[in-house]
Amino acid sequence: MSAARVGVVTFPGTLDDQDAARAVRHAGAEPVPLWHADTDLRGVDAVFLPGGFSYGDYLRCGAISRFAPLMGELVPAARAGLPVLGTCNGFQILCEAHLLPGALVKNAGLHYICRDQRLRIESTATAWTSAYTRGQEVVIPIKHGEGRYVADAETLAALESGGRVVVRYLGNPNGSLNDIAGVSNEAGNVVGLMPHPEHALEDLTGGPGTDGLGFFTSLLKTMVNA
Amino acid sequence: MIDSVGRAAETPQEPQPYAELGMKDDEYQRVRDILGRRPTSSELAIYSVMWSEHCSYKSSKVHLRQFGTKAPKSEALLVGMGENAGVVDIGDGWAATFKIESHNHPSYVEPHQGAATGVGGIVRDIMSMGARPVAVMDSLRFGAADAPDTRRVLPGVVEGISSYGNCLGLPNIGGEVVFDPCYIGNPLVNALCVGLLRKDQIKLATAPGPGNQVVLFGALTGPDGIGGASVLASATFEDESQAKRPSVQVGDPFMEKLLIECCLELFAADVVVGIQDLGAAGVACATTELAAKGTGGMDVRLDLVPLRDPRLRPEEILMSESQERMMAVVTPADIPAFMEICRKWDIPATVIGEVTDTGRLVMTWHGETIVDIEPGTAADEGPVYQRPYAEPAGQHALNADDPSRLARPGDLGATLLRLLGSPNLASKEWVTSQYDRYVRGNTVLAQPADAGVLRIGEVMPGASETVRGIALATDGNGRYARLDPYCGAQLALAESYRNVAVTGARPLAVTNCLNFGSPEDPEVMWQFAEAVRGLADACRALGVPVTGGNVSFYNQTGSAAINPTPVVGVLGVLDDVRRRVPHGFTGPDERVLLLGETTAEFGGSEWAHVEHGHLGGLPPRFQPEVERALATVLTEAAARGLLTGSHDLSDGGLAVALAESCLAHGVGATVSLPPGDDPFVALFSESASRALVTVRPESFDAFAALCGKHEVPCTTLGTTGGAALSIPGVLDIPVETLRTTHEGTLPALMA
């Protein structure tokens, strides 16, 4: 089987695209650069929306990016089952595009926070977390100013009862409701999270350890089983 | 009415506001002599900004020359002083370019935008060398930590750096935060950027080739910081009229990020002949400097400059400091490809002129000639001053006031905790957690490590493979420099050099930011002259050349100048970045070794400052041969994999270094002080050229032999492990107590 091809999207202002491509490579897949202005997903097997400040995020984070030409292709493909991961700004874009419920607002402390964050993997029933064990504790960096997850009570209840809270903070850094760090759609193919697994791949660089690699090896596992 | 060259010739007696633009009578007269007529208002704008202290270095030039005349031989130096930034060879076909620059005055007026645009400016300097910017650092100084104005300035500065740098996608990997009452009203914001490029990719600010096109690209030009370069940087605030107070520039990091990616694509496509960023003095500076360094001539149609505010006058367009703009020289054949790349990144780009061989910089405004000068007269032939200098009246008494008279403490544990919780030594996590240190995925070490370390192999696609890394540190100590500016500048270099070496990197080159009071005060000028002489001598002695930097004068309120504060950045290289030495104690059962010699040196020390509010005596001695030997041992030991952790000794001495080493990874240690030494001196003296390292027991003999070979004193202090820092008979403090003391201070002050 040839290597899985994972699209890495660059919007104007995307910052972690190089890291995202590296993460895909480390997991043994092939990163495929996708440009925001294109209307072609280039036949990729999955898509990674990395972090950054797309369009400067001067408006609500992700609010402009959701209208990018590429998103016109991505949204229906995701609804049809294409595995999609959004981290940080990518998560914000997925919420703005209504592929995921809820919204991300300014951190409770009002400051940008960069730190190595302890997390618990709450669901392994998604395309991006099957390589972990349920309840596994990991350390993955966070770095954001607007990462406080909010949703109405009904949505939160649905996320909790449906097993769609994928990652939870241990020691809530930003005031997210229910300590939510990441969620999935109902089908489990679309996952968004504020932490940056692509910054926890190697002992040499980034945060401590390699706890983030599982998100990317999960994808390969999913695709082999599919 | 437009003040054209023709009109200027016809109205020689028309009064001109040169004094308001910061020009002296004789400087204005010189412009008239050069031109053989009065300058037009646009020409006056150009000369006034180009001859300002900020752009011309007219007070500092005669001293700064020593960085060249005393420079050590260095095979690494590819581009030296005088360009936008220096470039050094780091091996395997790679080069690094780095520079530190001040944005002090704007950061006092408007902390957020002042600091943000400081980052933006230095990043564009690095881009204009043809490099990809890969990291930033900030060296920050504020008034007393509990002063009301510090609570205004510090959060604003940190937020400005955070919002601009984070949005730009550059990791912030280190720097300093220092408090001292002398910086109240004159905070220091010194921003450093480092970039990487292939050796064959270096770009220079030059405009050769008649017929080549001059392209202005990036943000539109608006009324930002007009007069900022000459006014903000050349006069004190106190006597400033409201009318003269200019607006601080506003930054757009999103535009800067696009500009970075756009420039890199332009460089890769090889469609740029020369390039210059627009910083202080905007279009005026970029056109004169490019023309002066190129074929010598340039025609510019100033009415083609795309404007954000259509009402701007030509003089204002020339002076505007709108951010996120660059100027490139491009061959006519490459213009379509150049414009296409700009379009891809949504970057406005406009041809505003052409390179000529006339030797004249000629600018027109809707057909009328408003500037016609020899560019070199503005760019290179500004006034040069031999300012008088004299040792400050109280210097002798200050040096005679030796700290040996100060009462020494009984409880050394309590002293350590007070120092560790004091604002200068307390954890800076409140600041640094607001900076993204991980973006781009090449950060190997960042704050609170002694130096930031980056992997370079994955920075740019297409470059040759390498396992190398670079290390960067900045340091400065205003108290040392106040006591002895010659030695203080040397100690700033020594500490930065040592910080790079403790990570295992070989120090290669130096950048500096010299922050002083008014050069018109002979006592300040003496401090400046001494500091430059000291730094130049120390660079020669340590074998690391100065590649560039920046001078910031007029950091004073009334007659009270800041402590002289030379901030020195050092860049080093690791041949194999995987051999970098982590910060502090990394695991149990390792031997803790002290390298170097300790004598009672308390002049300017943290202990004297925190416990007695005392500043007097002399700073620690600087011994270059000892410093060099220590660096040799550290880099050799790292390359051989002998070290498991390290930390340099500086502010607060051994006691603080031990505590910080415990805090790095939550690993305690049990140590004893060298027998016969006074425990207070052993723990709190700030003797230079010392470091702590840990080795596995089986590596000890090899390491001790290495120290012996280089005559570096090596003393076994004890063993790592446990949950406390324990010095039997002296102190015993749980690591958790160290942590709460260390981490509580800044959040409490900024709450």
From TrEMBL, chain A:
Pathway: Purine metabolism; IMP biosynthesis via de novo pathway; 5-amino-1-(5-phospho-D-ribosyl)imidazole from N(2)-formyl-N(1)-(5-phospho-D-ribosyl)glycinamide: step 1/2
Keywords: ATP-binding, Cytoplasm, Glutamine amidotransferase, Hydrolase, Ligase, Nucleotide-binding, Purine biosynthesis
Gene Ontology BP term (one): 'de novo' IMP biosynthetic process
SUPFAM superfamilies documented for this protein: Class I glutamine amidotransferase-like
Cell compartments where the protein resides: Cytoplasm
Main location: cytoplasm
Cellular compartments per GO CC: cytoplasm
Description of how the protein assembles with itself and partners: Part of the FGAM synthase complex composed of 1 PurL, 1 PurQ and 2 PurS subunits.
Record function comment: Part of the phosphoribosylformylglycinamidine synthase complex involved in the purines biosynthetic pathway. Catalyzes the ATP-dependent conversion of formylglycinamide ribonucleotide (FGAR) and glutamine to yield formylglycinamidine ribonucleotide (FGAM) and glutamate. The FGAM synthase complex is composed of three subunits. PurQ produces an ammonia molecule by converting glutamine to glutamate. PurL transfers the ammonia molecule to FGAR to form FGAM in an ATP-dependent manner.
HAMAP family per the UniProt record, alphabetical: PurQ (MF_00421)
Protein's recorded name: Phosphoribosylformylglycinamidine synthase subunit PurQ
TrEMBL record, chain B:
CDD domains the record matches: PurL_repeat1, PurL_repeat2
A GO-annotated cellular component: cytoplasm
Metal-binding among keywords: yes
Annotated metabolic or biological route of this protein: Purine metabolism; IMP biosynthesis via de novo pathway; 5-amino-1-(5-phospho-D-ribosyl)imidazole from N(2)-formyl-N(1)-(5-phospho-D-ribosyl)glycinamide: step 1/2
GO annotation terms (biological process): 'de novo' IMP biosynthetic process
Active site positions, chain numbering: H54, H103 (proton acceptor)
Residues that, per the record, bind substrate: S102, H103, N104, H105, R124, Q249, E321, S322, Q323, S552
Chief location category: cytoplasm
Binding site for Mg(2+) 1: E101, N550
Ranges for domain PurM-like N-terminal: 82-196, 450-573
Localisation: Cytoplasm
Binding site for Mg(2+) 2: D125, D277
Entry keywords, A to Z: ATP-binding, Cytoplasm, Ligase, Magnesium, Metal-binding, Nucleotide-binding, Purine biosynthesis
Its EC number(s): 6.3.5.3
Similarity remark: Belongs to the FGAMS family.
Biological role stated in the UniProt entry: Part of the phosphoribosylformylglycinamidine synthase complex involved in the purines biosynthetic pathway. Catalyzes the ATP-dependent conversion of formylglycinamide ribonucleotide (FGAR) and glutamine to yield formylglycinamidine ribonucleotide (FGAM) and glutamate. The FGAM synthase complex is composed of three subunits. PurQ produces an ammonia molecule by converting glutamine to glutamate. PurL transfers the ammonia molecule to FGAR to form FGAM in an ATP-dependent manner.
Quaternary data: Monomer. Part of the FGAM synthase complex composed of 1 PurL, 1 PurQ and 2 PurS subunits.
Protein name per Swiss-Prot or TrEMBL: Phosphoribosylformylglycinamidine synthase subunit PurL
Source organism of the structure: Spongiactinospora gelatinilytica
